[in-house]
Each structure stands twice: as C-alpha cells, then as structure tokens.
Design goal:
Blueprint (H helix, E strand, L loop, with lengths): L6 E5 L3 H11 L5 E5 L2 H11 L3 E5 L7 H9 L9 E5 L4 H10 L3 E4 L4 H24 L10 H10 L5 E7 L2 H8 L4 H15 L5 E7 L2 E6 L7 H16 L3 E3 L2 E3 L3 E7 L4 H14 L4 E3 H27 L3 E10 L4 E12 L5 E2 L3 H9 L3 H19 L3 E6 H5 L1 H13 L7 E6 L7 H13 L3 E7 L6 H7 L3 E4 L1 H5 L5 H17 L2 E4 L5 H10 L3 E2 L14 H7 L2
Parallel strand pairs: 1-2, 1-3, 3-4, 4-5, 11-12, 14-16, 16-17, 17-18, 18-19, 19-20, 20-21
Antiparallel strand pairs: 6-8, 6-11, 7-8, 9-10, 13-14, 13-21, 14-15
Length: about 550
C-alpha cells in the first residue's frame, strides 16, 4: 500500500470528477492536490512535485495536451508520470497525447480497480524517478551533478564542448566561514555563471564543492575564440569583483578548462583542469595539451609497472659512492645510491622523475625499506660508515617513521656507522615530527646530514634547529664554482656557517681536478663525485683507489 506522503495531483475542470477520483483512491491514503486547468496544474506541480498527475484532456484556459507538453519542458518536474483520464477514443487524439508526453491513459468512465492499480504502479515509478533524481542532482543547488553529466555525454559527444570551472579557494572559504555560508556561495555563483555564459544550448552542472560543468551542444555555431573569450572574461570578472554571500563579501579565484569533440569529453576536461591547477594556469584548452598529458600518463604507468616488477623480482640494486677525506686522502664513508633493473636486466638510474612516480604510486616506502636493510647488512659486513637519503615526507609517514625507529633500536650496536641524509620537501607539513626523529636517531649514535644545502627549501634557521653533523653542499654550486663568483662566495659562506655550528662539509659533484683544488682551497672537508669515483655495486678496493685517485 502506498505511504501517506505520496501525492496525487488531480487536474479536471469539473469538481465532481475530482471528488469521484479522490473517493476511489482514498483507501490508499494519498495526499491530494487539485487544479481546474493546465496552467494551475503546472504551478502546483512546480511547488509540490507530486508523485503522479491525473490529467483531464479537455479543459478551459489550458488543456491537458498543452499542460503536459509544458511540464515535459520543465527540468524540475519533467519526470512526473502523467496519466490522462479522457473520454477521447480517437487514435489521433491518443497519438497527440503521447507526443506531448503522456505516460498512460485511463478511459472515462473509469474503473475504480484499474485506477487504483495504475496509480499504485506509477507511484512506484515516481519513487524510482525520485531516487534517480537524488542520485543525479546536487542537494544544494538542485542542479544535475557529475553522474548526470557523464550520462548525458554518454548519449553522444560530437559537436559538444565542456567547460570545467573550479573555485580555487573554495575549501579555504568553507573552512573559514563554516558550512552555513556554502549554499549562498554555490547558488550565487550559479547565477553568475548563468548571467555571463550566454551561449545557446548551454546546460550547467554542479559537479562537486566549488566545481561546475558547462555543457555546450552544437559547438559548430561558436568559434574557439569566443569560447576562450567567455572563459577569460569570466575569470577577470570574478577576480575584480567581490561575491556577496549573506553579510559577507568574498574574493574568489578560478581555474577553467575546456574540451570538445571527444568520446572522453569529461575525462579530457578534468585532466586538463588538474594540470592547470597544479601548474597555476587560469585557463587551458584540452586540444592544446591533452596529447602531451596522455603521453606523460602513459610514461608514468610504464614506469610504475617497471617499479612494481623490480620490487617483485629483486630488481633494486644498491650502489655505493665513496666520499673522500680531503685532509687524510682516504675514503671517509660511502653514500648508498639506488639503481633499478628493468624487465630486461638493464640498469636504470632512478632520477627525481622515477622517485616521484614511486611516491605517487605509494611504492616509495617499499623501496626505502629495501635499501635500509641493505645498508644495515653492509655496515655489519664492512664496519664502515654508510649514508642513505631520507625525505622529510618519509619521516612524517607514520608507518615509515615507525619502521625507521624500529630499525635503529634493533641495530643500536652499529648505529654509529649510520648516516641519514635528509632531503627537505616543499610538502612537509610537520617539522616537529622530523625534529623528533632526528633527536631519537642521534640519541642512538646515528649521524644526520643535510643534503643539497644551498638550494631548494633548506634555510639556516632550519639547520640550526636540526643540529646536523654534516652539511652536503648542493652540486649545482660545486659544478659552477670555477666559473661563477656567486657560487664560490656561497660555498665559502656555507663553510663558515658549518664551522660555527660544528658540522663537517661535503662537496658533491666534484667532476674534475680544477673543482677539487678550489674546494680544498676553501677548506671543504670531503669530496664526492666522478673525479673521486663513480658509484659501484661493490666497495672500492682501497689499494685500487690509491692508484687512480688524486
């Protein structure tokens, strides 16, 4: 039996007919609405969204045919089932009714049992429609959502274009002002979109918080220049005007992408929008960048597969590069570097790109753990100092941080040979966690080195806070030291600073004798680079090193 909250709208200009219908359906406990013409029916349907409309065909002001046609043109109510109760029997009249959008017919005089059965059936259909509408509608603006957009694109994509628009600072505004202001922001912004994008056959979708889609049919009637102009002008309008949201005045910033004529229309626009957000581009068109993005995606996936294969088949091979003591002319320690074998056994030198792919693919911790275990084995075998690179993000990761601390504690008898080379990351969120790790590691006798100092994110205040044992000077400074006065002055300044805090200095990228001589003039403690030796699988034999070294 239908629930009491289901509503039937009865449209008939004869009050006795409306009363007869209500009496026939009263045992099903419907809520009834009544209208005596089509115009009034449309107004009630928009206000109350009834589950079923029982529509008479012949009425004054607006008949049932025209009312049905109008309802089917209104997005908010076009899904409501309409049953036409009519005495018309002519085939042409029924075809006309179907063309207007009537769902079904009930003949006058109607049978009570038939009327009850049909109403129950169409109430169930209406319930399903409501659930679909909820699933494909944004609850704040009641606009169709991402699911509705994708379903619409699936129907056809030719001659269609899609803007995706993102309010860049939406999350910050939401967090600052609270959820109460969100509906006002969303609805006001929708109105701004409607006012600005006066493009024929354009439909607006509310995809997510602060994200909107504008789907254009028949893009052949508008040039790319106009499409670009709409987007760029809207960005400038938003940039130079405050939005009103209640008593608040908000400054917004936008990122917009546009894609067209593609079976993957949404995916293209969304991929380009993400690229624009990352690279701080206000507006990008898919046709200009999508090929490059797809090639990059393919390369990323291939690299990810290669990393997975190497992890599964023991394809990560540690190499060790000597670090030379400039005073004693002996090998001081070794830096542990990672090399990777591909599925054909060829060695790959994992630069920043490969490591970035490993991080985004959530495989980097596995690589770090593997190399850490290798380093511990080398220390126990050779009783020499070995260093390993650690990102500050590694330490921030709870699982990785726990693994590192557990490894230190379990190997406390050899931690005096262990050196952590810290790589700072712009995405580091909590330096207190990094500092806590440093304090624990140093407490067990491990040493701390700051890698690539002189470029990137490191600063002198951070160095003072971390109290490193070693400062490794960035290779870009060392490479240019013979030809760039600024580079030499910077290296000399770093050396003075390191001496003041009691830290040793290592020059990376010592590629030739000229560089080696200059860093010795400055007083740098250690040298590392191809002039000394390349990284190898096995430790460099001391006697052989004496024969080839400086």
């Amino acid at each position: 039996m239908p629930k009491k909250e289901h509503t039937i709208l009865i449209v008939d200009d004869v009050s006795v007919n409306r009363m007869t219908i209500k009496l026939s359906l009263r045992e099903d406990h419907y809520t009834f609405l009544e209208a005596d013409n089509g115009e009034e029916a449309i107004a009630l349907a928009l206000e109350h969204h009834p589950d079923v409309i029982l529509m008479d065909a012949m009425m004054p002001v607006m008949d049932g045919f025209e009312a049905t046609k109008r309802i089917r043109e209104i997005e908010e109510i076009w899904r409501i089932p309409i049953l036409m109760i009519t005495a018309l029997e002519a085939k042409d009249d029924k075809i006309k009714a179907l063309q207007c959008g009537v769902s079904d017919f009930i003949s006058k005089p109607f049978d009570k049992t038939e009327l009850q059965a049909r109403c129950r059936s169409y109430v169930q259909i209406s319930t399903l429609n409501s659930r679909y509408t909820l699933a494909t509608q944004n609850p704040i603006t009641h606009l169709p959502n991402k699911l509705a957009l994708q379903q619409e694109i699936d129907l056809y994509f030719e001659n269609r274009g899609l803007y995706l628009i993102k309010i860049d600072n939406f999350n910050e505004i939401e967090n600052f002002y609270g959820n109460q202001i969100v509906p006002a922001i969303e609805n006001n912004f929708i109105e701004m979109l409607r006012e600005h994008f006066q493009i024929q056959s354009l439909k607006i979708y509310h995809i997510g918080s602060g994200k909107y889609g504008l789907l254009i049919d028949n893009t052949h009637h508008i040039t790319q220049e106009k499409i670009d102009g709409y987007a760029l002008d809207f960005i400038e309008k938003i940039k130079h005007n405050e939005m009103k949201a209640g008593s608040n005045r908000l400054n917004l910033s936008l990122t917009i992408s546009f894609a067209s004529h593609s079976p993957t229309l949404y995916e293209d626009a969304n991929e380009v929008l993400t690229h624009a957000l990352i690279n701080k581009k206000e507006y990008l068109v898919a046709s200009q960048v999508i090929k490059t993005l797809r090639e990059s995606l393919k390369m990323n996936l291939e690299m990810l597969d290669m990393i997975k294969y190497a992890l599964k088949h023991d394809g990560f091979v540690p190499h060790f590069q000597p670090i030379f003591d400039n005073k004693t002319k002996t090998i001081y320690k070794y830096e542990t570097l990672i090399r990777m074998k591909d599925n054909e056994g060829n060695l790959v030198y994992p630069g920043p790109y490969l490591m970035d792919v490993a991080k985004k693919g959530r495989l980097y911790p596995q690589v770090t753990k593997l190399i850490m275990n290798h380093v511990v084995d080398m220390i126990r075998t050779h009783h020499k100092e070995f260093s390993i690179n650690l990102s500050s993000l590694d330490i921030e990761n709870p699982q990785m941080g726990a693994f590192l601390l557990d490894l230190i504690k379990k190997n406390s008898d050899i931690t005096q040979y262990l050196i952590f080379e810290l790589l700072e990351d712009k995405d580091t969120e909590d330096y207190s966690v990094v500092k806590q790790f440093i304090d624990i590691a140093k407490g067990y006798g491990a040493q701390i080195a700051i890698d690539d100092f002189g470029s990137g994110y490191s600063n002198f205040m951070r160095i003072l806070e971390f109290e490193p044992d070693i400062i490794k000077i960035d290779g870009s400074l060392i490479q240019d030291i013979a030809t760039n006065k600024y580079a030499r002055n910077t290296v000399e300044m770093i050396k003075v600073f390191a001496d003041r805090i009691g830290a040793k200095t290592v020059a990376e990228y010592v590629e030739n004798e000229e560089i080696y001589n200059i860093i010795n003039e400055i007083g740098i403690d250690y040298s590392q680079g191809y002039y000394i030796a390349k990284a190898t699988v096995d430790l460099l034999d001391e006697k052989r090193f004496e024969e080839v070294s400086v």
